[in-house]
Specification:
Order of helices and strands: EEEEEEEEEEE
Helix content: under 10%
Structural class: mainly beta
Distance between the termini: 40 Å
Strand content: over 45%
Shape: globular
Largest sheet: 7 strands, mixed
Oligomer: single chain
């Protein structure tokens, strides 16, 4: 059974930093591309960042230079380090992977106050 469990969300002031974690189980984590999505109220879910098993990364234009995705294959965990946060980064952040099927975590709320 595949499980993705996010943690680390919270309330932060604009300009601040926050780090999210996603612990995965039930997959061969080291070979899977892991992704972070977010969904703001009234908006569609959007891809924020992705990291392949080999460590290649890509980012949405809106977060380039501010967010960093990383992974620890020994801990089956993917991270999203967020710096210079803006109110428009406020959203529920979801961990995602595709391993024969699409899997989502339960989401973690990030709120950035102005």
């Amino acid at each position: 059974q595949v499980q993705l469990v996010e943690s680390g969300g919270g309330l932060v002031q604009a300009g601040g930093s926050l780090s999210l974690s996603c612990a995965a189980s039930g997959i061969i984590f080291s070979i899977e591309t892991m992704r972070w999505y977010r969904q703001a109220p009234g908006k569609q879910r959007e891809l924020v960042a992705a990291i392949t098993g080999a460590g290649s990364t890509n980012y949405a234009d809106s977060v380039k230079g501010r967010f960093k995705i990383s992974r620890d294959n020994a801990k089956n965990t993917v991270y999203l380090h967020m710096n210079s946060l803006k109110p428009e980064d406020t959203a529920v952040y979801y961990c995602n992977t595709f391993s024969r099927a699409i899997y989502w975590g339960q989401g973690t709320q990030v709120t950035v106050s102005s």
